[in-house]
Design brief:
By secondary structure, the chain is of the alpha+beta class. It has a single domain (21-145), classed as Aspartate Aminotransferase, domain 1 (Alpha-Beta Complex), CATH 3.90.1150. The chain is 41% helix and 20% strand. The chain has 6 helices and 6 strands, in the order ααβαβββααββα. The protein has helices at residues 21-25, 30-47, 57-60, 93-101, 106-114, 131-146, and strands spanning 52-55, 62-66, 76-79, 86-92, 116-118, 121-127. Strands 1-2-3-4-6-5 form a 6-stranded antiparallel beta sheet. The chain is globular, with a radius of gyration of 16 Å. The protein starts with 20 loop residues before the first helix and ends with a helix.
């Protein structure tokens, strides 16, 4: 009887083997790898400490979770989805409304308008496929960390 072949899984998908950040980022090539690396570095600068690597279930799998020192709840998530990196943010309602009312960037608005709202937070996730998109999301992250509209 021939041996059965196990489909190979990417490090991002393998729940039972904790990957390194380098393994997660190595799945990208060219612009996606550059954006993921810059996103990782810039989020760490804005939040003030390195992320933790956590398994967050079937949707986000292995994700880099950012928490402001002294806070219990995360303020940003870098999700190394296979094609392009994604960043998810719990956007406080006052900041989300400010972006929607004051006509923040179209990239941020289009996602925030459809984001799921839980209590006073809109949960939004952006696929980062360009430098301008990354800059918009990083600016929003700074606003969330500082509690200021962007």
């Amino acid at each position: 009887m021939p041996a059965s072949r196990q489909p190979s899984r990417s490090p991002w998908e393998d729940r039972f083997s904790t990957p390194t950040t380098e393994q997660l980022l190595s799945q990208y090539e060219g612009p996606a790898q550059s954006l993921a690396s810059v996103g990782l570095t810039e989020l760490e600068k804005r939040v003030g400490q390195p992320p933790s690597l956590e398994w967050l279930g079937l949707s986000w799998k292995w994700t880099l979770v950012y928490k402001v020192p002294g806070e219990t709840e995360p303020c940003a998530y870098l999700i190394p989805t296979p094609d392009w990196p994604s960043i998810a943010l719990p956007v406080p309602l006052p900041i989300a409304e400010d972006i929607l009312i004051r006509r923040g960037s179209k990239y941020l608005r289009e996602t925030l308008v459809h984001a799921c709202q839980v209590d006073q937070v809109r949960w939004a996730q952006w696929s980062i496929q360009g430098k301008a998109q990354l800059a918009d999301v990083l600016k929003l992250t700074t606003g969330i960390v500082e509690g200021q509209p962007v």
